[in-house]
Amino acid sequence: MQAASDLRSAAFGLRYLAVTHCMRQEFDSAQACVRESLALWRAGQGRVLLPYLLETAALVAVGTRQHHRALKLAAAAAAQRDEMETPAPRTWMRQLQKWLDAARTSLGEERSATAWSQGLTLSVEDAVAEAVGGDSASEPSLAPGASLNGLTRREIDVLRLVASGNTNKEIAASLALSAATVERHLANVYAKIGARGRTEATAYAITRGLLG
Q: Which domains does the chain have, with CATH numbers?
């Protein structure tokens, strides 16, 4: 019993490390942690941990632009949570949804729905295999600051804060700007990156490593 508990603790620790690597745009390292964590999960089980591991693998998939795979993994995790009746903590779900919104924006509504439906039907073994099988080297993410469509430093600051979930009022307070100035910067950002709102702007920020 103690051995299984130790394995689960180690698996949780590796999962937290994988999330940290994702935030730093270190997706090869994140995927390695996911694989190792899943190996420990197999040995120690502990069903509650599995959805977290699948969701973390989904973050890696978004970061490496494997958007279809990301939504399949997230859907498989959602199915596990529904079956166990154990919803994820709100803070984690808010973070996860930002990444999944980036995937949905990239795929479009129809392809996103297809990927989600496929994920809901995955068995536990198939879901784990999907999570283990990711290879970030095949679809490299953009480096932080790359291809930023002529955004100024201040516009990048505003975009980062938008992607982090801040309101215009909060952004104004953080950057010591007026609300009108923030609105002007945000309008410029939308025009330069071709975004139609905060969701698309957040997707743009995530795929360019601006949240690292």
A: 2-138 (no CATH), 153-207 (1.10.10.10)
CA dist 28 and 10 (Å) reads 19
CA 135 to the chain's CA centroid: 16
**pLDDT tens-digit map of 20-65:** 989 888 888 999 989 888 888 777 656 788 999 999 999 999 998 8
Quick one: which of 143, 146, 151, 75 has its CA closest to 107? Answer: 75
pTM of the model: 0.63
Q: Contacts for 105-114 with beta carbons within 8 Å, 24 or more apart?
A: 105/199, 105/200, 105/203, 106/65, 106/67, 106/203, 106/207, 107/67, 107/68, 107/71, 111/68, 112/71
Question: Measured on CA atoms in the order 40, 26, 162, 157, is the torsion positive or negative?
Answer: positive
Residues 6 or more apart in contact with residue 169 via CB below 8 angstroms:
179
